[in-house]
Amino acid sequence: MIVGGYRIELEPRLKSPRWLVYVVPVVSLLFAFVVAGIFLLGTGHNPFTTYGKLIDKGYTSYYGITDTLGLATPLICTGLAAAFAFRMNLFNIGEEGQMYLGMIGAAWAGIVLADNLPGVAAVPVVMLSGAAFGALWVLVPAVLRARLGTSEIVSTLLLNYVALNLVNFLIFGSRTLWRDPSPFPDGQLVADSARLDRFGTTNVYPTLLIAAILAVFLWLFMRFSNYGYETSVFADSPNTARYAGMSASRLTVSVLLSSGALAGLAGSMYVVGPAGKVDPGLLQVGLGYAGIVVAALARYNFVAVILTAVLFAGLRVGGAALQISSDPVPIAIATVIQGAVLLFALGGEMFRKNRLRVRRIAGSPVRGAA
Amino acid sequence: MNASPEAVKGSHRSGGATLFALSARSVTKRFPGVLANDDVDFDLAAGEVHTLLGENGAGKSTLASVLCGLYRPDQGAVLRNGTQVRLSSPRHGLQHGIAMVHQHFRLVDRFSVAENVVLGDKRLSFFIDQDSINDRVSRIAEEFGLPIDPLAVVGELSAGQRQRVEIIKALYQGAEILLLDEPTALLAPPEVEKLFETVRTMAKAGKSVVFVSHKLGEVVDISDRITVMRDGKVTGSVGRGEADTRKLAELMVGREIDLSPRKAKAPAGGTMLKLHNVSLHRDGVAVVDNVSLEVRAGEIVGVAGVSGNGQRDLAELVAGLQSPTGGVITVDGREMNGAGTREMRANGLAYVPEDRLGTGLSPSLSIIDNMVLTRPRGLLVDRKAAGAEAERYITELEIKTPSPHTATRKLSGGNSQKVLLAREIFAQSDTTKVLVVCSPTRGLDVGAVETVHKVLDEARTKGKAVLLISEDLDEVLTLADKILVLYRGAVVHSADSNALDIEKVGLAMAGIS
Fold first, then answer.
1. Total domain count, chain B
2. CATH of residue B163
3. Pick among A9, A217, A221, A240 to test the B interface (most B CBs inside 10 A)
4. What are the chain A neighbours of B360 within 8 Å (beta carbons)?
5. Are B373 and A245 inside 8 Å of each other by CB?
6. B426 lies in a domain?
7. What is the ipTM of this complex?
8. H runs (alpha helix) in chain A
């Protein structure tokens, strides 16, 4: 780009200084608040009090942060699911549907199996059942991708709609074991042994710890295991993987199934935690799609997913709270703030990898000289 | 050995009276972290064939790009017939009669030769008169000895023919100065000869040609003048007859280089690799056609041939990446048909593929991680041992890298090749019996070529059986004890290195026997 006598260029950085990793997100966040602030001013709200409220309701107040952590719990899992697949250049967009299937699978185990299991085994079995259902939901796209090279983006995305209507069918359209026998359409509750107690009066469940431990475990596993090594070779250069005798189809299928299992786990956490049943309310939240954003923000780093999930959940919780405050901010504006934060956070990446250079074009006059 | 810098320094400017067709004056061009051209002077006379010689990264392509208008210099000027020109784009350069033929052709595969030639010509009317265009293309082709059918579809042409199309295109657009970037890289020896004839014809017609090359051997004959670059600077400029290859190599590398032939010093041992009537059919075509060969311990068997004659498939068959559709492959006395690449390795075969960064190495992974690529690994990857190994080879082979944690794509071609060779040749030296090595020095600096040749020679001395598949005939001639020529997947010629008729080899490579 040329402005006046100057050429403005983006130049790749040869080395990204360590501090940039921390400074860029903070500056991005500031820019996002400035841009969203313009919208707030335009709609007659004081940006500072609005942000103050957003931060208070989302992060700093007791019930704010606990609500945020509660919402972040399944989001960490869908974020891990997306990160797991995307790291290997397998674009599983179907976390949303796989999460629904996880909910269905967990509720099935919670209704049918849990009563016959010893108490301590009920929750793990229910969670694993959800994970298995989530994995199965991605089995067909995975095999198609591995055998025929069919785009997993399209197939996993389309299955989201199938999963959505499957949930609607189970609750509103039929009388299956997932549906409560009462006339009012709702999910059947799972056995008490299949549920976890929340911490005190908060919305935080022990599943938060499971999600966080899982993130750290995945980080370590993919970093040090042979499986993690092979996936990173395959992601980097499929030809190299073939040269080294790795099986492309085995890696493709296993990565997509693991991703589906993680998304399914998000659904089962919803069942053993707040819902206790197949809850059509989950269809409104979009935690699966949000997981993709969370993973991208974390640059597909498993541990960073914990942080970005909390950031994202806080924006949701705080944004929702803005609507019911004394000076209500419409949900649309709250969404603008969310969008600006995410957009700038992703855009900031560019400045971590590149540097802006402003150079005088040779031959153009120097201002103030002779 | 001391090339007196005074004698060869600078360009052949004579007292300021001569007007050069094209000159660079103190051109400096920076890229992030690299000073690609540092105060470079270059003069090209009309009707002159002038070679820009230098290793990869010496800055010769950058200079050529500045001269044709692709890059703008940060400092300095480009002069056309003594007048400064500010070239803003290659199209602008073309208006001044300057055209560049890139190493990677920029042609539309589905178009005919004539259509490609006139592509981008603004003088054309809305309705194109095919006949007159074909006519003009044929005329240019004839005048400069570039035989080609104007109606042929470019996608079906060989590399040499495509290059002719590029040259015709430049001439059609009125180029007086042609910059050819590594023009011989993809050509068979007879095609190179043909290209040189064309270049001589163009020079006779008063056109100037700049040859950008890193191949010492071939440029001496054709050039009226050779300007050598190293590390972004001009290290010397010598006229015809003033320099031999040794002196030029020294100017290029900055030290003495030994690229003399290396042959087996001891008689070869038992047969380690044997191919018997091996074929590979793909889509009904025999891409590898009844190949039989034997490699014994302590010898290098060289497979020469022009690119795309089945070398890659042959190598992959031997390495176990593909299964032959016919014939038998035996490694160390064991029939290996249908064995995968891991089994092949377990039986003592190592493979250095031609594409080092995209196949032999994982480009974004570190040197350490690349060391374990072809090893058996447990549940956890042992990076400690690999790290120690990487450190050792970095010292032994003088691999230039900031650290063993550096991603291999950040290394130069020569250094990444050393990483690959270290892993395949040294690291498992006790168990490896057979080495399959493909074009190991393609695109490498003279200095790195010397190292690679030394490494392969050492492997032979240690009793490995080496199958060297290379498109670089000089390399095969330098190293191999036995030479085979591959043409369209079949071995069309074979000879011992001490009873070799080079002309026959060249003809066999072009498919003439």
1. 3
2. 3.40.50.300
3. A240
4. 240, 243
5. no
6. yes
7. 0.82
8. 20-42, 47-55, 62-86, 95-108, 119-137, 139-148, 152-168, 207-224, 226-236, 238-243, 248-270, 287-297, 302-323, 331-353
Q: Say yes or no: B424 and B316 in one domain.
A: no
* Beta carbons within 10 angstroms of residue B234's beta carbon: 27
Question: What is the DSSP pairing of strand B271-282 with strand B285-296?
Answer: antiparallel
User: What does the DSSP assignment read for A203-221?
Assistant: S--THHHHHHHHHHHHHHH
Q: Which tops the pLDDT comparison, A136 or A173? A: A136
Residue B214 covered by a domain: yes
pLDDT band at B494; cut points 50, 70, 90:
very high
Residues 6 or more apart whose CB falls under 8 angstroms from that of A39 comprise A333, A336, A337
Q: Which of B228, B253, B278 is the last residue of a domain?
A: B253
Strand partners, A183: none
Flag if A226 and B380 touch (Cβ within 8 Å).
yes
Percent of chain A residues past pLDDT 90, beyond the cut: 55
pLDDT tens across B332-359, in order? 988 888 788 999 998 899 999 988 888 9
CB contact under 8 A, A14 and B33: yes
Same domain as B367, residue B341 = no
pLDDT single digits (tens) A279-321: 988 888 889 999 998 998 888 999 999 999 999 899 889 888 8
Please report residues of A whose CB lies closer than 8 A to that of B341.
243-245
- Asked if residue B104 and residue B209 are part of one domain, the reply reads yes
Instruction: Identify whether residues B228 and B96 lie together within a single domain.
Output: yes
Q: pLDDT at position B5, please?
A: 40
**Interval B426-464: pLDDT, tens:** 766 678 899 999 999 887 878 888 889 999 999 999 999
Question: Are A225 and B381 a contacting pair at CB < 8 A?
Answer: yes
- Tell me the two tokens of residue B351: 């493979």
B511 and B443 within one domain: yes
User: Are residues B463 and B426 part of one domain?
Assistant: no
Are B377 and A226 in contact (CB < 8 Å)? Answer: yes
Inter-chain CB proximity A243 and B351 less than 8 Å: yes
Asked if the Cβ–Cβ distance from A240 to B359 is below 8 Å, we say yes
Same domain, B330 and B272: yes
Answer whether B302's CB lies under 8 Å from B483's CB.
yes
Same domain? For B134 and B234 the reply is yes
Give a yes or no: residue B258 inside a domain. no
Domain-embedded: residue B7? no
**Whole domain around residue B146: which residue ranges?**
12-253
| Distance in Å, alpha carbon of B338 to nearest chain A alpha carbon | 13
Shortest Cα distance from B393 to chain A (angstroms)? Answer: 21
CA distance A256 to chain B (A): 20
Q: Between chain A and chain B, how many beta carbons pairs sit less than 8 Å apart? A: 70
Which residue in chain A has the smallest CA separation from B315? A243
Q: Inter-chain contact B32–A226, Cβ cutoff 8 Å?
A: no
Please answer whether residues B111 and B157 qualify as being in contact, where contact means their C-beta atoms are separated by less than 8 angstroms: no
Domain boundary among B220, B253, B286: B253
